[in-house]
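Figure 3 (text version): structure tokens given as input.
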């Protein structure tokens, strides 16, 4: 169950990062509320995952899901640039996440 909590927490991290961008510095009410609600839910689910998963594993995977997810969302929805160096960085992050998961089994 901890891995499900961690995955959901990571997805919510993507949600709050995107909503924060849309909030324009917390000057828009709806995206600001979504940001705060997703942050709280993400942290709560991360805390549940940390009941059984090691700190280093849980936190690394949570931030990795958020980082790579925000990278992809930025490209798809915000028209952010895509180049070989950025893709390589994302591949390295995902490789690290896989190794972290395998090493904690």
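Below: residues designed for each position.
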């Amino acid at each position: 169950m901890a891995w499900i909590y961690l995955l959901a927490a990571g997805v919510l991290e993507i949600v709050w990062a995107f909503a924060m961008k849309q909030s324009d510095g917390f000057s828009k009410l709806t995206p600001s509320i979504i940001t705060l609600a997703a942050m709280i839910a993400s942290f709560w689910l991360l805390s549940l995952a940390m009941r059984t998963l090691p700190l280093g594993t849980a936190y690394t995977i949570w931030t990795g899901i958020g980082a790579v997810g925000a990278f992809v969302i930025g490209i798809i929805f915000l028209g952010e640039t895509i180049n070989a160096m950025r893709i390589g960085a994302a591949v390295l992050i995902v490789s690290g996440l896989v190794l972290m998961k395998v090493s904690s089994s």
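The mean pLDDT is 95.
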